[in-house]
Amino acid sequence: MAKYSRRDFLKTGAGAGAAALFAGGRLPSAAAAASPGGARVVASGNGIRATAKAMDILMAGGDPLDAVIAGVNIVEDDPNDMSVGYGGLPNEDGVVELDASVMYGPTHTAGAVAALRNIKNPSKVARLVMERTDHVLLVGKGALKFARAHGFREEDLLTEKSRAAWLRWKETMSVRDNWFPPKSESVPEELRSVMNTQGTINCIAVDGAGRLAGVTTTSGLSWKLSGRVGDSPIIGAGLYVDNDIGAAGSTGRGEANLQTCASFRIVAAMGRGMSPEQACLEACEAIIAKTKLVPRLCDADGRPKFGLNFYALNKKGEFGAACLYQGGKYAVHDGAENKLRDAAYLFKRRQDRG
After folding, report:
1. 20 to 30 A Cα–Cα from 346, which one of 21, 51, 151, 284?
2. Cα separation, 284 vs 2, whole angstroms
3. Options 51, 197, 200, 216, the catalytic residue
4. Residue 200 a catalytic site member
5. What burial class does residue 297 get, using C-beta atoms within 10 Å of its C-beta: 0-12 exposed, 13-18 middle, 19+ buried?
6. How many CA atoms lie less than 13 Å away from 70 in the CB half-sphere?
7. Residue 172 CB contacts under 8 Å (≥ 6 apart), including other chains
8. Which of 122-126, 183-187, 298-302 has the lowest mean pLDDT?
């Protein structure tokens, strides 16, 4: 496993501007590549099942786009993952709205859907947008109409668990309305832990022939305004693939990523010779620089109050990930082993600083 030190980072163009913000923290080691030339699958921390499924498909000679979509479908279908697909936390009106994008390296084509209701696998619909239309992005009622035309069955995506979480949010957000919360002891701990989420799953892959593909899918920010769209369905923000270079994706605060188009930046940085990890760290540093311009998003130290995570994979099979704050994990299947790895980071958590 390669080491990437704080000193090495500060020698790069990305690190120079971040030096004053480090507060003495070190950059941890992050995953380097296994031997080049083989299949690799990388996903966000909730994607360990996705990387396993995707690698099974690649090992059987399958296409990388088939692989990553089949991988994230596991999470989209899981009612216990409250940030993606079925059971995802809803908008402020109690309605689940899903976003997703796909991109296929060999043809450099992409498809996406946003604010899609009643269809639990938006990644599949995004693929059809790519393959069966002359468009890249369909939204709202148009996306739903398109999905129905292709035989997708509408269903209620709000599970009892996600409905209860939404209701709890409605009951506690104000003391000046007519919603009365239950006694605190009647609220299960699991609901308290998911009252706000920005969860998403990103999965990117390269096969043994060097073909790249990626997908990002999400239910978005919990309790968002109806119609809000984050970075996940935006090509260049939540996902970007260039078959000559590599692929990148993200999870976390979509608004920050939308304002920097970080996935495109990461792939472009890899094209200039940066490792996947270095490129992800450079994107994190760009987020920090822009966030400092908006005081309401910063803590007393001038650091972002939110989290944002990036994942990258190049054509040689080298991979890496980085987060704004310590503690991020990502899933990697290198063809021999499928496991969660520590992501690089810029800042230690406040409670971890001496």
Report:
1. 51
2. 20
3. 200
4. yes
5. middle
6. 16
7. 181
8. 183-187
**Of 291, 335, 258, nearest in space to 40 by CA:** 335
What are the extents of the domains in the chain?
Answer: 6-158+197-352
Alpha helix segments (H runs only) across the chain: 6-11, 13-16, 48-59, 64-76, 122-132, 140-149, 160-172, 189-192, 254-258, 262-271, 276-291
Summary count for the chain: helices (H), strands (E): 11, 13
pLDDT tens per residue across span 110-136: 999 999 999 999 999 999 999 999 999
**H or E, element range at 240:** strand 239-242
CATH number attached to the domain at 6-158+197-352: 3.60.20.30
Characterise 252 by phi-psi region: left (phi > 0), alpha (psi -120 to 50), beta (else): left
Q: Which helix (H) or strand (E) holds 308?
A: strand 308-314
- Residue 351: CB atoms within 10 Å: 5
User: Which residue reads 């239910």 in tokens?
Assistant: 219
* Whether the Cβ atoms of residue 162 and residue 87 lie closer than 8 Å to each other: yes
Q: What is the pLDDT of residue 307?
A: 92
Least Cα distance to 113 among 102, 99, 131 occurs for 99
* Rg of the chain, C-alpha, whole Å: 20
Q: Which residues pair with 314 in a beta bridge?
A: 246
Place of tokens 């060097």: 210
The whole-angstrom separation of Cα 217 and Cα 343 is: 20
Of 205, 170, 174, 18, the C-alpha closest to 95 is: 170
User: pLDDT tens, 206-234?
Assistant: 999 999 999 999 999 999 999 999 999 99
Q: How far apart, in whole angstroms, are the C-alpha atoms of residue 184 and residue 328?
A: 30
